[in-house]
Amino acid sequence: MKNLLVTGGAGFIGSNFVHYLMERTDVSVTVLDKLTYAGNRASLEGLAPERVQLIVGDIADAAVVDPLVERADAIVHYAAESHNDNSLHDPRPFLDTNITGTYTLLEAARRYGTRFHHISTDEVYGDLELGTPERFTESTPYKPSSPYSSTKAASDLLVRAWVRSFGVRATISNCSNNYGPYQHVEKFIPRQITNVLDGVRPKLYGEGLNVRDWIHADDHSSAVWTILNRGELGQTYLIGADGERNNRDVVELILTEMGQAADAYDHVVDRAGHDLRYAIDSSRLRTELGWAPEFERFEQGLRTTIAWYHDNEAWWRPQKAATESRYVELGQ
Ligand code: NAD
Ligand code: DAU
């Protein structure tokens, strides 16, 4: 594999993947990204122009997609509408990008015989009870809760159908909650870090007892690179780093790390249909493909992430005011 097409490569996890490839491999990358509110050219700044090209376009536009897929050795498909809260207020773009966009890419992969890796989420499995040892595995039944997660579930099923019916050479990965640099300030961890930097109290939905299974974006990237190179075609791999924490603990950790009182946060109105708990069993990826995360301690990764937002205000500042006014309208 010499030339990769990375969709959504100007977003959070996609741009981290492109940085990872530049540092650890010799592949060249074409990024296809629509630069929605969530995409940011600045996330790709400083990367070698002879190895990274950004094409601004829509994954649901076959006229844009087809020639790019024809030239690529593989597609790594990150592009999506990704925020649950947005999907609760305007689901339409989620259907267009997550379902029709994935369909458009799959048709191109089928036409040109191109290897396809689909990036998905643990949210397709719904949620788990608090305080149980149960975790998601590759055979957990799909039970998505939100418009976002149901469109991601639909996209996974399209990939499976294109493998079975048309022989598309695809793999799927379902990962847990990512954190790290270049994450949009609408998301939980960067929202709270940048609030504290602005002297604003963090906002916890409901009681804050919901649990997420945190993984650093670099560990997600190494897992995707492993699956792309060594994964079995047609298979699904779950990606997680045993990072379960409830939201209250995360907010208290951020406040403490940033020199504030641990209880200096506010409770705000809860998210509709809020999933209680996610937890990933990544045994298949670890035992069959030999993958392991490098960030073994969430606290360590969180500290470097806080430092990144502290040092990169120019990157997040332009998005902050508009994001917070959207939340004010929602009472969150
Ligand atoms: P993000 O919102 O930060 O980035 C999405 C990117 O896709 C943006 O750059 C945006 O401009 C682009 N995009 C949106 N619609 C497009 C379209 N129609 N055509 C081309 N580009 C388009 O999202 P993220 O958090 O980086 O998530 C990336 C992928 O990883 C998604 O598929 C998401 O479902 C999946 N995922 C995310 C997490 C997480 O914790 N954030 C965890 C597991 C899986
Ligand atoms: O599990 C993987 C998923 O993780 C991805 O598929 C999604 O794309 C990604 O956005 C993320 O979804 P969540 O809904 O879990 O992430 P979010 O950052 O929106 O919220 C994390 C938790 O924090 C969730 O329980 C809601 C809560 N929350 C969020 C915000 C923005 C708060 O308590 N306060 C907040 O201000």
TrEMBL record:
Keywords, in A-Z order: Lyase, NAD
KW Lyase (keyword) present: yes
CDD domains: dTDP_GD_SDR_e (cd05246)
Classification via InterPro entries: dTDP_Gluc_deHydtase, NAD(P)-bd_dom, NAD(P)-bd_dom_sf
Cofactor: NAD(+)
Listed EC numbers: 4.2.1.46
GO molecular function, one term: dTDP-glucose 4,6-dehydratase activity
Residue ranges occupied by any NAD(P)-binding domain in the UniProt entry: 5-304
One biological process term in Gene Ontology: nucleotide-sugar metabolic process
One Pfam short name: GDP_Man_Dehyd
Catalytic activities: dTDP-alpha-D-glucose = dTDP-4-dehydro-6-deoxy-alpha-D-glucose + H2O
Cited SUPFAM superfamilies: NAD(P)-binding Rossmann-fold domains (SSF51735)
Signal peptide boundaries: none
Entry-linked NCBIfam families: dTDP_gluc_dehyt (TIGR01181)
Family, similarity comment: Belongs to the NAD(P)-dependent epimerase/dehydratase family. dTDP-glucose dehydratase subfamily.
PANTHER family: DTDP-D-GLUCOSE 4,6-DEHYDRATASE-RELATED
Protein's recorded name: dTDP-glucose 4,6-dehydratase
